Amino acid sequence: MEISRKESSLLRALATRAGRKKSGCCRCEGIRAVRELLSYYPEKVRFIAIAKRALPQMQCDASLLRIVPDNLFDELAGTVNSQGVIAVADIPAPATGAVEGEFVLALDQLGDPGNFGTIARSLRAAGQKELWYTKGSIDPWGDKAIRSGMGVQFGLNLRRFDTLHDLASFGAVQGINNVFIADPHQGENCFTCKALFDRSIIVIGGEPNGVMGVYPGAEKVIIPMPGNYESINAAQAATVLIFESVRRKTV
Amino acid sequence: MEISRKESSLLRALATRAGRKKSGCCRCEGIRAVRELLSYYPEKVRFIAIAKRALPQMQCDASLLRIVPDNLFDELAGTVNSQGVIAVADIPAPATGAVEGEFVLALDQLGDPGNFGTIARSLRAAGQKELWYTKGSIDPWGDKAIRSGMGVQFGLNLRRFDTLHDLASFGAVQGINNVFIADPHQGENCFTCKALFDRSIIVIGGEPNGVMGVYPGAEKVIIPMPGNYESINAAQAATVLIFESVRRKTV
Lengths: 251, 251
Prior knowledge:
The structure is a homodimer.
Chain A (H helix, E strand, L loop, with lengths): L4 H9 L3 H7 L1 E5 L1 H10 L4 E7 L13 E4 L1 H8 L7 E6 L12 E6 L4 H13 L4 E5 L8 H7 L7 E5 L2 H10 L4 E5 L5 E2 L10 E6 L13 E4 L11 H17 L1
Parallel strand pairs in A: 2-3, 5-6, 5-10, 6-7, 8-10, 8-11, 9-11
Antiparallel strand pairs in A: 1-4, 2-4
Helix pairs in contact in A: 5-6, 5-8
């Protein structure tokens, strides 16, 4: 089916936060991201806009496909080298079920959508589920966050809190009492800290200030940096910690 | 001193590859990046353009400073929330001296400047020096690569090769015979591979194809992914490997 005018204006509107808020939808761009979305969340896909040139590459329920002329697609896509596929889906309701997996990764005021997305991918690759974040972090359902996350957001338990205090209190109610804060300057060596993944919350702060609030009872952990360097990128720090959990399980 | 017309056109031209090629200079934006540049490479700094509003934040040799009206600065900067400081420096000559550190990180056709920069930062934080790359990778001296690398490029030994084969041959001449290729699908577990950092070259491929050429004698290493996920971001993969070297030294 050809894309309708209404559908293409929705697609356009979803590039903005206001448009997402109004419609309750988000857009999910790229072949891998759409595949991820369909695997976790097929019932909430409204339609999949596809450039004529990309038709041979996309296998899915044909009734979802809306064919878009190549030049209109490029205008709607917003990326320069688009893969020709954008799905429109309902934004998932915040997770409300039980906390899953071995630990929670929490992002405190993480302002960069690219970092949010790559952290989500690392977490997904490590087989974990819980990605929590505080107010002041970016919108996980924005274009760039979904693109850099390649849609893994749809399969994670995202939970949003106003403050780090609220976040830790919710954890405590769920029986998660170990809170670790990644700190660039001090703390226990993350590679030797025994309880780091023992039903814990690991908090990563947005750069350049790290975690802003001090949470009582939280312990600091540090990633050792023999190069005497101020700090690495927040997504890199999160990934080092996430894959330390993988290492401990696989060796 | 106020910025001259010639200087501001140079600054503008350096946003493009052609402009960098013609002048042999690059621009380095942000307070931390300029600090890094000055610490490694002070003699090659041509001038430092500074927005009037940022003057109190920048301490350096006053003869280098060129004061720029705030609105002109924003136009020149190219970032939305600029910190108000851009240095112009000669692009460093490619490294020619001996290979330093314990291992070489090699990027094969890495097309994303943000990834290039964050990998450079991780390497710097880990205290390593050698960052090699093949043709088809992005320009390490472009705006975005320097910004996301926060200028650590200036302190690393960057070496560029036409092909992976040339890269490995150069390594062999330097007595580096272990070549490892990070592979998303198969190989030895990176967390147990003993020789991984033993005067080795570790090759990371640009997404989504990974390393394209097969290099004879190279061994594959894999980052285990219990989540059964296709692959993580190239910069995340590089950082997991880089910090595995740190872990082995610090525990």
